[in-house]
């Protein structure tokens, strides 16, 4: 069983704009959750809303402007509301690396699948693998206009 999902995409935008798209609730809801309830800062546990697909509480782990943003969530649970740190979870990390002026690599890493309950591991890994491909394409498309 694989423990980690890794994806790299290249976006033609400044690292400031990309970081804003990942860390600013007003902008992150344009490509990932449709809503964010609560504070979206380090140490907080806001709720991501996915419309008819449910809500998931997350725990914001780190925010280093223009370089790194990370949170923990409960994969495979379409309706997890509660203390994310009290149950098995995975770590989602976004790293932004500037390649040239207004061109950056965004690395998405989700790790911790091997610590999930056995009956959830494979399904959660497979669901999120495809899910990140879809969501990252939406992030890229924000900057295509």
TrEMBL record:
CDD domains listed in its UniProt record: SRPBCC_CalC_Aha1-like_5 (cd08898)
SUPFAM superfamilies listed in its UniProt record: Bet v1-like
Activator of Hsp90 ATPase homologue 1/2-like C-terminal domain: residues covered: 12-143
Gene3D superfamilies the UniProt entry points to: 3.30.530.20
Pfam families xref list: AHSA1 (PF08327)
The family this protein is said to belong to: Belongs to the AHA1 family.
Protein name in UniProt: Aha1 domain superfamily
């Amino acid at each position: 069983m694989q423990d980690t999902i890794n994806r790299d995409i290249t976006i033609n935008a400044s690292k400031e704009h990309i970081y804003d798209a990942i860390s600013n609730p007003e902008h992150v809801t344009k490509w990932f959750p449709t809503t964010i309830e609560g504070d979206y800062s380090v140490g907080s546990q806001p709720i991501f809303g996915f419309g008819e697909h449910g809500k998931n509480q997350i725990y914001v782990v780190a925010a280093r402007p223009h370089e790194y943003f990370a949170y923990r969530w409960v994969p495979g649970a379409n309706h997890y509301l509660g203390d994310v740190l009290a149950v098995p979870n995975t770590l989602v990390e976004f790293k932004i690396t500037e390649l040239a002026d207004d061109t950056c690599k965004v690395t998405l890493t989700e790790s911790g699948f091997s610590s999930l309950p056995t009956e959830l591991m494979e399904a959660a890994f497979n669901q999120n693998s495809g899910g990140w491909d879809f969501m990252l394409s939406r992030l890229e498309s924000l900057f295509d206009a």
